[in-house]
Amino acid sequence: MSAESLRIFPEFSTILARTAAAALSLAILFALTIVATSAQAQTYKVIHSFTDGADGANPQSGLAIDAAGSLYGTTVAGGTGHLCSAPPGCGTIFRLTHAGSDWVTTPIYEFYGTSDGGHPISPVAFAPDGTLYGTTYPGYGTLFRLTPPPTPPASTFGTWDMTVLHSFDGANPLGELVFDADGNVYGTTAFGGPYNYGTVYEWTGLNLVLIYSGQSYPDGQTPEGGVTLDSSGNLYGTFSAGGPYQSGMAFELSPSHQGWSIQNLAVFSGGYAPVSGLIFDPRGNLYGRRVGSIFELVHLNGYWNLTGVYDVGSNGPDRLVIDSAGNFYGTAYDNGDYGMGSVFRLTPSNGGWIYTSLHDFCPAPPGCSDGAQPLGSVVFDANGNLYGTASSGGAYGYGVVWEITP
Fold first, then answer.
1. Per residue in 63-75, is it b (16+ CB within 10 Å) or e — as a string?
2. Tell me, which fold does domain 10-87+209-404 have in CATH?
3. Which of 191, 192, 289, 313 could disulfide-link to 276, CB 3.0 to 4.6 Å?
């Protein structure tokens, strides 16, 4: 795999390097009696290979899906180039739509790298009104909204309307965005706030409000994975630094008339910092990732108990996805039979978990025509098909969008 084909920003490389060294220790720390299997799926298909042109290059986040089954995502680089002073291009937002049994890829926005930001490494998300929201990361970073044009463009390269809602002062927004019933947006920044320890913020539609920012050394710092919202309006997430052992914490933020109050749910130690967001299972338990390991937070008698679930053997900053049967799905950056990453499923079984590899990337090096090194979450459509991205490989070496059918 050419080093020029995959552009991972230094900040994310630091995250990978910081967590990789702990993988072996975590395997011991989180050891459980779990049955593991590896079964290659025969239904994997590349539905788009990025060209480093108008469609973009090197997707480093997952996808959003609309009611019609169209897919939306971001690329960290690429674009036509003349809009951005950075040689790789400042990245794009793209859409894939069905065309019979095939897919049509449409770039719907290309970043200028000026006031609109650039190089997005977080996914876009649909607001309740059907518009798309997202963030850009390096430099100052932005929170933006994309609105489709009032009339369909004559060209398949029609640009959606971009509105920059907020420009962050070096705060570096990261992770997935979530929306409450009123359409307010919640997210996290790795830095920023009064002491530059990172923030959890709310966009009210008029302005940006910081609802958490660490104030001292032991406080939670550097939230990188976004937040998760429950039915009562509480927010849940992780800090990748801070806490008594400077290895991060899991937290809950609860709203009240007096503002937001924070509760630390679990403390991590040993340098094993969580970098992904959290998700709920149907029983109200929380799951997240740190290095290659997946952990569970079980709420019992007013307390949250932290236990290990499974070590997938690879870094993975993306958030897990759960289906109606309680199976977990995700990607791993550099494991699998060929060391170029995988798509996996974890199935609960008799108090343990069965690991299944749905696809191991790059069985035919050096080109990795099926993609390589996935960094984003997966998403399901209404028919149970699974979609995601790989940050490199493909027909041109600049990453792919893939589909796994049941």
1. bbbeeeebbbbbb
2. Neuraminidase (2.120.10)
3. 289
